[in-house]
Design a protein that fits this description.
Blueprint: H1 2-13, H2 25-37, H3 42-60, H4 63-71, H5 76-103, H6 109-128, H7 153-177, H8 179-200, E1 206-208, E2 213-219, H9 224-227, H10 233-245, E3 251-253, H11 268-276, E4 280-291, E5 294-304, E6 308-312, H12 326-329, E7 353-355, E8 358-364, H13 371-375, E9 383-388, H14 398-413, E10 417-421, E11 427-429, E12 435-438, E13 445-451, E14 454-456, H15 459-463, H16 466-495
Parallel strand pairs: 2-3, 3-4, 8-9, 9-10
Antiparallel strand pairs: 1-14, 2-13, 4-5, 5-6, 7-8, 10-11, 11-12
Helix pairs in contact: 1-2, 1-3, 2-7, 3-5, 4-5, 5-6, 6-7, 6-16, 7-8, 7-14, 7-16
Length: about 500
Amino acid sequence: MRYLAALIAGALAVFAFSPFNWYPLSIVCPALLFLFWLGASVRQCFWLGFMFGVGMFGVGVSWVYVSLHDFGNMPAPLAGIVVTVFVLYLSLFPAAVGGLQAAWPGTNTLVRATLVIPSLWAMSEWLRGWLLSGFPWLSLGYSQVGWPLGGFASVVGVYGVSWFTAVTVGAIVAVVVNRSRFAPLGIAVAITLIAAGWLLDRINWVEPKGKPVKVALVQGNIPLVDKWRVDRRSGILAQYMELSDNTDAELIVWPESALPVYADELPESFWRGLEDHPADFVFGILERRTDATGDRFYNSVVAVSNSLSFYRKRHLVPFGEFLPLSSVLGWLLDYLHIPMSDFSSWSGAQAPLMAVGNPLGVSICYEDAFPEDVRVMLPDARLLVNVSEDAWFGDSFGPHQRLQMAQMRAVEMGRPMVRAGNTGVSAVIDHRGKISTRSSQFIKTVILDTVQPMTGTTPYVRFGNLIMIVLAVLGMGVAVLVNLRLRQELDEKQSG
């Protein structure tokens, strides 16, 4: 029954994230798992964590099936197998946390719940965010966007927010387990952290730079089945220009690969037309370049201002934009009929793009899910721009989860972010992570807003994940010291 309860708790935890944002579940669901862990063996804790992961990832990243089957043309049985294996892999991370915390030398309940488990939890999320190219979805910290504990993000980042959230959960669990002994301290810890997060959210680490910028985000809503058809190219181009010409914006942003052609295929008259336009443009485009190794293809963004400047995607989507271990997995290409899926990753340094007199920190699609990928443009960038193609996710949780991640990036970096997606959700987010304007999905629209470029450096931009890592290591170190002290006291009593 405990394994079943852990599975259900994991599934319900998904509803703490966007698009539902049922915040109490971000406390209640992990609390139930922590409670089970405190009274189980190493083996039981491993499987309890695994079942929690199966529930959370099985529900929370179910959109992967939509991408593979509905749009990648993978046969349903094979897509089901791939998603199942993926979910089982992700579930190993909470399973490892459960097993390791149970094997940790005998710390008391309060120390285990408030230091050991939170430290291992945060470190496991950080590891999941980069191992095998990384998959940081459903990190506990994202559920705190807009809530008091989310105020820690500008200092410690999303994984640090996960740590503070888990400490709060652990303090509550310690009170439940031993109310008479831990109630005052546990309650004090939870209240202190919530208050601290609320206060941190009101600190201004950054300041305005220059005048506000009028922006227009063009959401073309081009179906994927039409986007890559040669006979639709001219119509798509005409649609984006028509939507753009009806605004008084200073900066116009189109989605990822908005024009389904290579940059060198566009006539010079097109580029001259954009340069002569009253607004500056930023949009996704495909590039092909030849070097000593042959032809290379890039998923890029171009800024059209006084001149053209390009950003080339660094963090590619496995199986969507490149095939890992192609010599072994080449047979998958027979099933994944994904257009433009043989890109190269750009490995060199890239400066922010310049438009409307401001350096822009650019990311393409799910790059904004990785804080270090966005942080590399700071503190120079004054405004963050993300272009996306969320049509691959269909009508699922995926686009909403990505929008919540973008909100977290804005808080961490202390910069406003504008996001243009082909099918939505397109949005304007201020430097505190609040959405000022957003579109509905699956409609052709233009959203207009004004953003204030910012300058300055948040602690997270300065130190990255180092603060979180230090907190986690200190937490586990303190747990060791407490255990040694308790053992010493026990030995003194026995010898006395």
